[in-house]
Every structure is written in structure tokens, then in C-alpha cells.
Design goal:
two-stranded antiparallel sheet; 13% strand; Rossmann fold; 10 strands; alpha/beta; single chain; globular
């Protein structure tokens, strides 16, 4: 049965990057996932795939405001990633804004999420920080697991204090949300913020290589630069999803994921693994990609990540795609390059 993961938090906390990394972790065994972003203030299709020209027909807005929402309509609007054919994305297209479509309705959002969940193994809902966008509270309500990402500073603290009263209803399961410290840096007062926020379940440390992937249109390459603390947080999400099925952990999932307690941040000493040697190495999807052949796409660059001052003892990841972010010229409009191969 499909699992719905909702990710929400304050602006600029790294939600969208976390969703991309999580999708790659969850599809490592060729399960299928769809990332859905319904924040019309920042259309995500051109951010995820800057080298592809997608018409507004691929926009999620056409689905959420349609007269009838069904599985076939949702599948038709899913855009498949060329390099990762087990991951699909849905979002607003370039040039769209909050006034491009009528106001979203609760019933249609709920139906949309239900229909999308019939298509794949995992639905990842990348939510807007604005609770006035009905998609965010509806996604939290519909989630099997909710991840709350907060920057460990006054911005994150006051965002959480302002929005917690809006989620007091039992249907939002506020107390069961996983809480991660997003873009954590060495100068952040993690212990103090941990106490004020109520406890972090994990850290998502900032790294300049990850930021470059985000600003250079290579968000799905960022997992290669995540250090062990970030990887542990991703594993914790997958462990919770496995536990919800009352099944044993798969693929040797570590139970030594870090935890933050009210008394301060503590972490066991798990075996440190070089990223390139763990189960999240870049897979070879050359065979699967035959169905999505075409020009464009990201090209790997020659670059090596360097250890962050935050966690210098963790070996740097050996990966590519951090320095040169120039994209090839678009090969032309790809009108029918979405909605294929996503059905179970």
C-alpha cells in the first residue's frame, strides 16, 4: 500500500532539497515515488528540470482545478525524471503564479492525494510554508508520516510557535511529527534550540555542495554530498515507514540514527561509511532510460566534495556535479514527455 510523506517547515529550511534526497533513498530498490509541490509562488518544474521546456499542460494546477480528478488524469500530468525513471514530479510550470488558477479547495486536494497514491509506492508532499495555502494543512492531515523541518534559529523557532496553534486538531497528529534541524551550521546553538523547539529527531547539516546543487538545477544530485548525519535522518524516515507496516527493517537499516534530547544533542557512534560505499550510490538506469531518451539532462562534472567544518571527521563524498552548472541548450519542446511508466 502506498505511503504518504508530508514535509513542511519554515521558509528556506531545505524542504525541497530534503524531498529530492528522500525520493532517491526510497526508490533505491526500484520502488516508485512521486514528489508533489503545490506552491504556486515558486513553480518547481523549472527548478527540478531547468533543461526541459514543459508547457503549462504539465502543471499540477490543471489537475487541482479540474472538473473531475481521477487516477488517469493524475498519471497524465506526472513528469518522469530522465535520469531517475522511478521518480516522478508534479508542480507548477514556469511563469505561473498564485493567480493563474482558482483557489484550491479542500475536497479536491484530498481527492487528488488519494488518486495519486494509487499510482506509486510513495507520495512525497513538498508543502508551502504558508498555511493559508490549503494544500499544506490538507497534506499534513493525509500523511502517513509527517516531517517537520525547522532552521535551528529564531526564524524557525518563531515560525513554529506561530503555526502550532493552527495544527492542534487531532487529525494533524502534531506530536507524532518527526522534527529535523534544517541547514544546521556550526554556529547554531543546537542544544538551546533543541530545548526550545521540543527536541530534534535529526540534523540536516548545511553543505555548500548541496547548496550548489540546489541553485544549479541539480537537486537530485545532492544526495551524493550529504554527510552521515543527513543520511541518518533520511534513514530514520524510511525506518518509520517500515515500522508502520509492522515489518522488519530492510536493507540493514541502522537503528543508530541520531536523536536530540531535551538535555542536549547526543549521538551514538555508528560506523562511518563513505557515501560512495553505502546503498545510496548513483544507480545505473541506462536500460530504464531508453524509454525517456532525448537530448538535455544533467551532465556530471569533475568535482569532489570537501568535508564541512560542521562535521569534518566524516569522509567527504566522492561524487560529481558541483562546480559547473551550465546547462545545454534545450532540445525543443517535449510535449508528451510526462505521464509514462509511473503506473504500478
Amino acid at each position: 500500500m502506498s505511503k504518504i510523506i508530508t514535509v513542511w517547515g519554515n521558509p528556506g529550511c531545505g524542504k525541497s532539497m530534503f524531498c529530492c534526497c528522500l525520493a532517491k533513498v526510497l526508490t533505491a530498490n526500484k520502488d516508485k515515488a512521486i514528489i508533489i509541490n503545490a506552491d504556486s509562488s515558486t513553480p518547481m518544474l523549472p527548478v527540478w528540470m531547468p533543461e526541459r521546456i514543459l508547457e503549462t499542460g504539465a502543471s499540477i494546477g490543471n489537475v487541482l482545478t479540474g472538473l473531475e480528478i481521477n487516477t488517469a488524469l493524475v498519471a497524465e500530468r506526472v513528469t518522469i525524471l530522465k535520469e531517475y525513471p522511478f521518480i516522478g514530479v508534479m508542480g507548477y510550470a514556469a511563469g505561473e503564479n498564485p493567480f493563474s488558477y482558482p483557489e484550491l479547495k479542500y475536497e479536491k486536494i484530498k481527492l487528488f492525494i488519494t488518486e495519486a497514491a494509487k499510482l506509486v509506492d510513495y507520495i512525497i508532499l513538498d508543502c508551502s510554508s504558508n498555511m493559508l495555502n490549503f494544500f499544506t494543512p490538507t497534506a499534513i492531515e493525509a500523511a502517513d508520516l509527517t516531517v517537520r523541518i525547522i532552521t535551528p534559529d529564531l526564524r524557525g523557532l518563531n515560525y513554529l510557535r506561530a503555526h502550532r496553534p493552527l495544527l492542534t486538531d487531532d487529525k494533524f497528529h502534531y506530536d507524532s511529527h518527526l522534527t529535523f534541524a534544517g541547514l544546521a551550521r556550526p554556529f547554531h546553538a543546537i542544544d538551546e534550540m533543541n530545548h526550545l523547539i521540543g527536541g530534534f529527531d535529526g540534523l540536516l547539516p548545511y553543505a555548500k555542495e548541496i547548496e550548489r546543487c540546489g541553485t544549479g538545477g541539480q537537486m537530485f544530485k545532492a544526495l551524493a554530498y550529504c554527510n552521515q548525519r543527513y543520511i541518518n535522518s533520511l534513514k530514520l524516515v524510511r525506518e518509520r515507514l517500515v515500522q508502520s507496516d509492522d515489518g522488519p527493517a530492510e536493507d540493514g537499516l541502522s537503528s543508530e540514527t541520531q536523536t536530540c534530547h531535551e538535555s542536549g544533542y547526543t549521538e551514538p557512534t555508528p560506523k562511518r561509511e563513505h557515501y560512495a560505499e553505502n546503498e545510496y550510490t548513483e544507480p545505473d538506469y541506462s536500460a530504464e532510460n531508453d524509454a525517456f531518451a532525448g537530448n538535455g539532462g544533467f551532465t556530471d562534472q569533475d568535482s569532489m566534495a570537501t568535508p564541512d567544518a560542521w562535521d569534518a571527521e566524516i569522509p567527504a563524498a566522492s561524487a560529481t556535479g558541483a562546480e559547473n552548472h551550465r546547462q545545454k541548450a534545450p532540445a525543443g519542446k517535449e510535449k508528451k514527455d510526462y505521464g509514462h511508466g509511473i503506473l504500478k
